[in-house]
Amino acid sequence: MDNGSNTPTNKPEHIKSGKGKSVSNPAAANATAASFASLIAKLDYLSPADLEQVRQAYRFADEAHLGQLRNSGEPYITHPIAVTAQCAEWKLDAQALMAALLHDALEDCGVTKTELIERFGSPVAELVDGLTKLEKLHFSTREENQAESFRKMLLAMARDVRVILIKLADRTHNMRTLSDAPRDKWARIASETLEIYAPISYRLGLNQTYQELQDLSFRHLFPWRYATLSKAIARARGRRRDLFQKVEREVEASFKTPGISVQITGREKTLYSIYKKMDDKHLTFAQITDIYGFRVLVPNLIDCYTALGVLHQLYKPVPGKFKDHIAIAKPNGYQSLHTTLVGPSGVNIEFQIRTETMNVVADSGVAAHWLYKTAESNSASTDRLGVKWLQSLLDIQVETRDAAEFWDHVKVDLFPDAVYVFTPKSRIMALPRGATVVDFAYAIHSNVGDHAVAAKINGDQAPLRNKLKNGDVVEVVTSADATPNPAWLSFVRTARARSKIRHHLKTMAQNESELLGQKLLTQALRAEGIEKLPDENDAPQGLWDKVLRFTGNKTRDELLTDIGLGKRIATIVAKRLLKLLVESGQKPDPLLLTLERFAPHESQTQDTVTIDGSENASVQFSTCCRPIPGDSILGYLGRGEGLAVHTDDCIVAQKLQNKDSDRFISVEWSDEPVRTFEAGILVTVTNGKGVLARVASALASAEADIAHIDMGEDSAQDTTDLRFVIAVRDTAHLETALRSLKRAPSVLHASRIRGHF
User: What pLDDT was estimated at residue 366?
Assistant: First the structure.
């Protein structure tokens, strides 16, 4: 089922020949029976009762797929059997094996989920459903289909990791047999495997599967390069056979003195990893020196470090080529000592030193939970392999309803590079390479991230956008009043941090827009003679239902939010409300109507929105005119953009008034604004040493912070125009700053300017 439910493609690569077509080839039938017999041989770890359940699932699947063929001409049932065989290699339980046998039954054979529940129980049916593609849903684009399918699979996998193990077994078998599919499908399927499934297998510690998927994808994406590289490695293998036999003998002999029981096996760098190294570093094949290596398995953890000492006595280590992944395990649970040594003839050879259990985890990752449940005292840690990442998927899903955005978040975390940093209490945190202090804060807890204001790295003050390095000790300073900054989205690296910030900003913007919408609708209703907005509980029966049918909104809160965002016009909604209230027997207040229509503008406080700077996302101060307290202003309700504030002499606002006057509302400044506002200024100076410093000092003495500088391109002239965006409290503060500038040496002219620069 390669593209079942939850993968980002349709599943054409191993097409059945048709439901109604019978299999008349006796040899094919014999192959099927033989395949199941070989599967049974791998299930010796199951109890007789579990084995019988798996046999029942096989019979059901065999009957469901009867008459279907794969592209190779084999009966289709050989595919579920092969997938189940891979799951048996990981020693998955009977439920997972049954789901593997049945994984295409819902998708391709017309079997219902209810039928699976009745026959095999709810857990098995849920596993199969988690693997089934969204066949009955229709999407506007292929990308949307991919994103939604992938989201469903990931969420099912987060609830039960067996879903992705079966899925990866399914994809592995389909990649092994991709040569039987039409060649025009190779590139799409191989690319998807390389970009999605191989990284997931790495993230979950399935190293063998990861390497096989990479090599199979490489083989089908670049057949000629694959063949050429294969021949080059075969030739190199022949030339160096004697060398590596000598190394193996010397290493075995060196371990006899300390009396450590070791297993030494040769290993070869995968074709894809060699190709990537050549491609990334622009190297020739001859320049790749670490194609071959050895794996050394020892009885226990202490022996790993003893073995390292033995090897370093035998051959000289290459400086900078030692990594201790035992003390600091990789995020997917991988543990091993890596060292590169200079062997005979000056050839670099990499050694990996680990215990048997570490080796199982290295190859099988989360599947080691079933393989090695009680092998070692510390094997309980395998229960947690990948769990943090899987749990984070559910957290992100709660905050991200859009499938494409969900996929954007998740794919950030699928790449292997990591940095290891420490909390002040010496707890190790693994983060993606390029992660910042904000990523670290959200990895600790969402409350730490939401309220972060400053940080210390290795005891020194550091900005929140600082990228972390291996070994950094990070301390985050928080404040109860702090909230996430939208600018953080430009530098955070992890999916968790990005989704938490976006969720907070969306919630904040929605709440503010709802309050603004309520205020605007109340004002519009007062202009119609109704004192206040009817509450849902106090309103005549059915009033708000009729209003919502008129506007197309689902709830009253959604309607108010849309008014605050400018998607609905308050006066139109107010007139509809008035009509419905009159029909229910309520009449406009003549006195209020008279006051609202004929009172002088200055006294119309009820009909004016007051701005104090605390409105955040619901109110934008237009950069075309940069209004500040003291300016005469007006408000424009853009469609879906909230309230935009302009100065009343702004050219852009005047153009908007000519074509969209009904979207303008009266706004005024609060007597006590709560923050500073940005204003643009132009400063003409004579060129010379230290001019910029003197200008900055003049602004600092006026307590005006610099937000942006544009120095232009005419530095070779005698005079230069410097454009600043500065933060001021009001027009009086701006005038103070300009006076301070005019007194500064080298300043010829200083004035306020409008618009972008």
Answer: 61
What per-residue confidence (pLDDT) applies to 448?
Answer: 92
The amino acid occupying position 35 is S
Structural domain that includes position 41: 26-204
Which CATH number goes with the domain that contains 711? 3.30.70.260
Torsion of CA 495, 194, 76, 106, to 10 degrees: 10
Q: Which residues contact 249 (CB under 8 A, 6 or more apart)?
A: none
Of 361, 382, 403, at which residue does a domain stop? 382
β-sheet bridge partners, residue 359: none
State residue 140's pLDDT score.
Answer: 43
Q: What are phi and psi of 712, to 5 degrees?
A: 70, -170
**1 in a structural domain:** no
Q: Output the pLDDT for position 336.
A: 92
User: Can you tell me the distance from the alpha carbon of 514 to that of 27, in angstroms, rounded to the nearest whole number?
Assistant: 70
> What was the pLDDT predicted at 148?
58
Residue at 736 is within a domain: yes
Can you say whether residue 110 is alpha, beta or left, with left for phi > 0 and alpha for psi between -120 and 50 degrees? Answer: left
Looking at the annotation, which residues are catalytic? Answer: 107-108
726 contacts: CB under 8 Å, gap ≥ 6: 678, 679, 681, 699, 704, 705, 706, 707, 734, 737
Q: Which residue has the tokens 């590079």?
A: 417
Mark residue 179 as left, alpha or beta (left: phi above 0; alpha: psi -120 to 50; beta: remaining).
alpha
- Decide the pairing of beta strands 667-669 and 609-611: parallel
Instruction: Give the chain's largest Cα–Cα span.
Output: 106
- Phi, psi dihedral angles at 555 (to 5 degrees): -135, 165
Q: How many domains does one find in the chain?
A: 5
CATH of the domain at 448: 3.10.20.30
Tell me, what's the pLDDT at 225? Answer: 92
Task: Classify each residue of 708-731 as buried b or exposed e, where b means 16 or more C-beta atoms within 10 Å of its C-beta.
Answer: eeeeeeeeeeeebbbebbbbbbbb
307 and 278 in one domain? yes
Residues of the chain with pLDDT under 50: 1-34, 134-141, 371-385, 415-416, 600-606
d(CA 386, CA 366): 7
